[in-house]
Amino acid sequence: MRVSWPALGGAGIGATEEFNSYGAVTDADAIDALRTAHECGINFIDTSPLYGESERRIGLAFKELGLGSDFVVQTKCGTHPDPEIGGYGYDQILRSVENSLNNLGHVDVLLLHDPTFEELNEAKKSGGALDAMLEAQRQGMVKYIGIGVREHECLLGMMDTGLCDVILTYLDYNLMNRSAAEKVLPEAQRQNIGVVNGSVFYNGLISGADPFQKVKEGNRPPTLSRGEAVHFAASMREWCIKHGGSGDILGSLALGFGLIDNDPLLKNGTIVVGSRNSEEVRGICKMIEGLNDLGDLMHSFREEFDAKVDTFDAHFYYDKTQGAAG
Hints:
Elements: E1 7-9, H1 27-39, E2 44-46, H2 54-65, E3 72-77, H3 90-104, E4 109-113, H4 117-123, H5 129-138, E5 144-148, H6 152-159, E6 166-170, H7 184-190, E7 194-198, H8 211-214, H9 222-226, H10 228-244, H11 248-256, E8 269-274, H12 278-289, H13 295-311, E9 317-319, E10 323-325
Parallel strand pairs: 1-2, 1-8, 2-3, 3-4, 4-5, 5-6, 6-7, 7-8
Antiparallel strand pairs: 9-10
Helix pairs in contact: 1-2, 1-12, 2-3, 3-5
């Protein structure tokens, strides 16, 4: 697959009053976001049945704009909110894929979404979720399969099967957290597995906006606003204002992390960035446009912060079995 840097994350455009991590949007907002993404050269979109109205809205935009064939589409299975479709059983996975195809028109990449390590082990057994994903691949319902999950042991466990084409890892390879570089990314590189690197803005804290205001948007994790991460992100933003002239520079550096440095761990990778509307998509693309001029600033930034990142351990994380924690 030849995909853009960045890819468009579909959680934001799926937001409703119920599923509202970033602030609710409308169908028209979603359509405008897809139109703008196409105009800016973005050709990869990540979504999930879990993300509110995301799949339906993406499919609607494809039909209205005639853009379906221009996008590589990645969606997920295992976490559909309908209990008849959600779950990691063989039949549930195939029903989830069929539902996604009905919504989206086509699926290029199918990821097993957010399993615990125990659920992953069950999924890998004969007649489990992995067999269903392979069957969907054999039938041409999807082209590539993989996993998207927070826990590194699950990412490694899926890669250990030798059947994984793509992984989505998030919140763990960015300006604030490099933990994926320990085992996950080297193993993906060794196996030539595609990497989708999510949450490079660290839940919005290093997007360039004031972190203390950003955590108040939508239904963000309460632990995030109380954590040391907000203060750490604010110190990065203050440095960027002093040395780069603008807090927005932090967002550009976050988007360029791995790209400016020509990072070999992401040679088969891209980043996925959520956007709610056309304005946010254009803002991200504008940040991307200036990356070629930020190499020296990135070098200085990393000289200032890399050692602090290595010792920072107050990261926000998500434990599916216990809810959000930080």
